[in-house]
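Problem 3 from the worked examples.
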Amino acid sequence: MKAYFLQSVGKETRLELRDVPQPQPKDGQVLVKVHAAGLNRGEFIAGHGLIAPGAAKAAGQEAAGEIVGTGERVMGRAPGAFAEYVLMDRREALPIPAGMTFEAAASIPLTFTVVHDMLVAQGGLKAGDWLLVAGVSSGVGVAALQAGKALGAKVIGTSGSAEKLAKLRPLGLDVALRTRGADASLSKNILEATGGQGVSLIVNSVGGSIVPEAIKALAFQGRMAICGYVDGVLHAEVDFDAVHAKRLRIFGVSNKLRNADQRAETVRGFAADFLPLFAARKIAPLVDRVFAFAELQAAKAYMESDAHVGKIVVKL
């Protein structure tokens, strides 16, 4: 079968298409014929450490397709997803809601389970809370906006692009902050927007560059989720007095060191809380662009250009 491999070389990640044997499922696994697979920015950033330097690794993290032998339509986390066939942990193979395309389904598994972890499992977001999504036009950012609105929160989104922010208004973005030029003071603008109270939860996929301002923008007992660092800034100055006085909490969201049981627990939470929202059409994943499987290199370049709003998907 055809499968892409990814290698980390210096500050770059490089793709290679190979012919490899079809994988064979073990106990607890299902073999899935892939119809679509989602791109995730973190996999393609060498600094995120998802692809360690050295030999190339099977590329791709999430897929949608049919279970071989039963034809069941499923979506889920799937290491090596950029391939004609892939293995899934049976506990993570979720049914695709009726009427949903494979391309839309492939944009859901990683993004929305991460968002569930941030907003529900760890973030404790409630109806009426203020949520700040830094980098709101990314795949995770759009998903956090959609899930936050479905949970009844008021959402502030930041982006360097006024055009991208405008595209997200129809999804319910309450406050759009352009984080370049006149709107560079994040905390000042957020405090003004929230009547001085600040935000209950911050989704930070931008990185360390915004941490000092983000801490100023947090309300009493506020939380900040760290889910990425596209700015490449891995260290930040932290105001301990503010963390102490406001009883703040900063937490990470990653599957990198989690075991299979822990990952499956997150999937169960997503299935219980979010899957019904997709089935009821209360959340519809935003797919920016679909590329052919043979165009994965172009899809990667498009993601790295930062032109997209929402998810990028490849179709087999």
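Problem 4, a separate protein:
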Amino acid sequence: MIDAFESLPGVGHKTAQRLAFFLLTQSEEKSLAFAGAIEDARKKIHYCQRCFNLTDLELCPICAAYQRDPTILCVVEAPKDIVAMERTHEFKGLYHVLHGVISPQNHVGPDDIKIRELIRRVDDDEIREVILATNPDIEGEATAIYISRLLKPFGVKTTRLAHGIPVGGDIEYTDEVTLAKSLEGRQEI
């Protein structure tokens, strides 16, 4: 059990031990309910037919919501990125989950993630803007550039999330790349 918990991302040996001992000290009913929740999720949760978010329905609640703007599409790497974006209560469009990024070093190419499906959506739907919200690391940047080149022939506005110094951050402690991106993306006030 400890080995199984240790295989989870971000869980070290001590945390894995703590979780295992916690579950072993729970009533059989609670332990079986926990195991059942995992089994139930594995059986019921699948990808949304439109955006590839995780859902237990044909369309996820975001794709099914009529009040969302279907002309703006935010492209993210993983379903957890949608959760982060939704916490802001600012984005009112739809999403597309790539399920990864282009990473030649890890043998992940464009055909290994949901880029083909993204291009099909842009071609079929009435998308006016695609926001590329991949992480600001080497793979995320490469994926964003690759996708932006593929979208050029469609004439759709393609934007990238702004990069820069976080609110509450100190310029003194900001790395050179982030500071350079902050200067590059500066805005008039």
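Solution to problem 4. The chain is about 45% helix and 10% strand. The CA atoms of residues 23 and 35 lie 10 Å apart.
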